[in-house]
Design brief:
Helices cover 36% and strands 16% of the residues. It has 331 residues and is an alpha/beta fold. The strands form three sheets. A four-stranded antiparallel beta sheet has the order 4-5-6-7, covered by helices on one side. The protein has a four-stranded parallel beta sheet with strand order 9-8-10-11, with helices on both faces. Helix 4 crosses helix 5. Bound molecules: zinc ion. The site of zinc ion (ZN) has 9 residues, from loops.
Length: 331
């Protein structure tokens, strides 16, 4: 039996609760319920299953499945695309198999896992799967070209698990919590340098899982500056935005037993504000120094691509004042 789409959609009518459940979506009993945890990205009240769920199969998540995401909610097929994280053709194929339109047997998906409300602080394992898949799917010579465009060695993009999202035509940069678990994906267009994130991502830190620890922890803003610091052999971590996730940087510094945190601040107001927040968050863990690229140099990557080695950066850092928590003893 040939599986043309209108015919499939007709066959699926009235069976969407069953279909989405078979795809691993914990949807039973949720028809017409709003304000639920999202089975994909968690939270407490961001998910809704619309009335007529069996008929039409429409679900919605304020964070990861809404009018601004691709796909966006509309019918059961787009719910399936969103849930399985596949393109339309693959979703149609899955549906055709399920409905027996091609005589195939349904293969249950193993990767799906319920988000448990009492463990909402644990990141959804799907983020790590997404990061790994995009890393694996990026052809080696594309990664080499992306590195070349940045003026950095390709090894550093491998260490940071940079991949490629064919759908959005962007490099993918896993963002992590202080324990190294993937909590979201940063996207960067290699041509325009436009930066955004996969919908539903938690803003997290960018760092390589092979940091040695026991060394100064260098903090930069954004993925490419972080990659530049890594490329000269420094233990580096990137914050998602100026002043963002400073508490996580402090946790990482503590976990890595960093004797010092060195902030490479951007030379603008946001950079100065971000540096100040980092100092306040990290000074309870260890000494903190703030440095900036020399005048006329835009950012950390330009500085390093222009020839600054680790020794140069260390010398600049050592010349900067160290900020430490002063403990005053009352006599
Ligand atoms: Zn969601």
């Amino acid at each position: 039996m040939k599986a043309d789409l209108p015919r499939l959609m007709m066959m699926a009518r009235g069976r969407w609760t069953e279909i989405l459940t078979a795809a691993g979506m914990p949807i039973e009993g949720l028809e017409n319920r709003r304000g639920r945890p999202c089975p994909k990205c968690g939270g407490r009240d961001r998910f809704a299953a619309f009335p007529g769920l069996a008929e039409r199969g429409v679900v919605y998540c304020r964070f990861c499945f809404n009018k601004n995401t691709n796909p966006r909610p509309g019918d059961g097929l787009s719910s399936l695309r969103w849930w399985l994280a596949v393109d339309a053709a693959a979703a149609v194929q899955w549906l055709a198999r399920f409905l027996g339109a091609e005589g195939a047997v349904v293969v249950p998906r193993h990767v799906e896992r319920r988000v448990r409300i009492d463990e909402h602080r644990d990141p959804d394992p799907r983020w790590a799967e997404m990061a790994e898949r995009w890393f694996a799917e990026m052809p080696d010579h594309w990664r080499a070209r992306a590195a070349e465009r940045l003026g950095l060695p390709v090894e550093v993009l491998i260490r940071l698990m940079v991949g490629w999202d064919f759908e959005r035509r962007a490099t993918t940069w896993p963002m992590r919590d202080p324990d190294g678990r993937v909590v979201g994906i940063r996207l960067r267009c290699p041509v325009s340098a436009r930066k955004w994130a996969v919908s539903g991502s938690t803003a997290g830190l960018i760092f390589s899982l092979d940091l040695r620890g026991g060394m100064p922890l260098w903090v930069a803003e954004g993925p490419t500056d972080t990659a530049a610091l890594c490329s000269v052999g420094l233990d580096a971590v990137g914050v998602p935005s100026a002043g963002g996730r400073v508490d996580w940087v402090a946790s990482l510094a503590r976990r890595l037993r960093a004797p010092e945190v060195i902030v490479v601040a951007d030379c603008d107001d946001a950079g100065a504000m971000g540096a100040e927040r980092l100092v306040r968050a990290c000074v309870t863990i260890c000494g903190v120094r703030v440095i900036r690229p020399p005048d006329g140099i835009k950012d950390c990557r330009e500085w390093i691509v222009g020839g600054a080695h680790a020794d140069v950066l260390r010398a600049v850092a050592n010349a900067a004042a160290i900020q430490q928590l002063k403990v005053r003893c009352q006599q």
